[in-house]
Write a structure and sequence with these properties.
The protein has 133 residues and is of the alpha/beta class. It has a single domain, classed as YqgF/RNase H-like domain (Nucleotidyltransferase, domain 5), CATH 3.30.420. Helix content is 41%, strand content 24%. It is built from 4 helices and 5 strands. Strands 3-2-1-4-5 form a 5-stranded mixed β-sheet, with helices on both faces. Strand 2 (11-17) and strand 3 form a beta hairpin. The longest helix is centred in the last third of the chain and has 17 residues, at 113-129.
Length: 133
């Protein structure tokens, strides 16, 4: 199983790909604290028996280095088994694209759907670049 994370300051968007082709957004994980969020993400990954984790990293922008440092630190808190491969994917524009996909479909609420749609986009991009998967 392949999963993706869109790590944000308030929520962590999640998505899975059971077959390496289809990508399904999953409920976002509310972030009340780093350790709680890490436990919840680890439980999500274990429940889906994830073998490959794709994490979105921001490219460009004034806070790129700071956000990359925070995201990599958070991934370290997950304490994943060595069998789980962690990969990074450029997430540039994924949140804006997610908002555009949601436009008109439902009233945009802060319920995490956009965060998980951004994770879906991140995973779709990664799969498109790694078709051999």
């Amino acid at each position: 199983m392949i999963a993706a994370l869109d790590v944000g300051l308030r929520r962590i968007g999640t998505a899975i790909s059971p077959d390496g082709k289809t990508v399904l957004p999953q409920p976002a994980i509310e972030r009340k604290g780093r350790r709680q969020a890490a436990r919840d993400v680890r439980a999500f990954l274990e429940a889906w028996e994830v073998e490959t984790l794709v994490v979105g990293l921001p490219r460009g922008g004034s806070s790129e280095e700071e956000m990359e440092r925070r995201i990599r630190h958070f991934v370290g808190l997950l304490e994943l088994p060595a069998s789980v491969q962690v990969l990074y994917q450029d997430e540039a524009g994924s949140s804006e694209e997610a908002k555009e996909r949601m436009r008109g479909a439902v009233r945009q609420k802060r319920d995490g759907r956009i965060d998980s749609l951004a994770a879906q986009i991140i995973l779709e991009r990664w799969l498109a670049q790694h078709k051999a998967f």
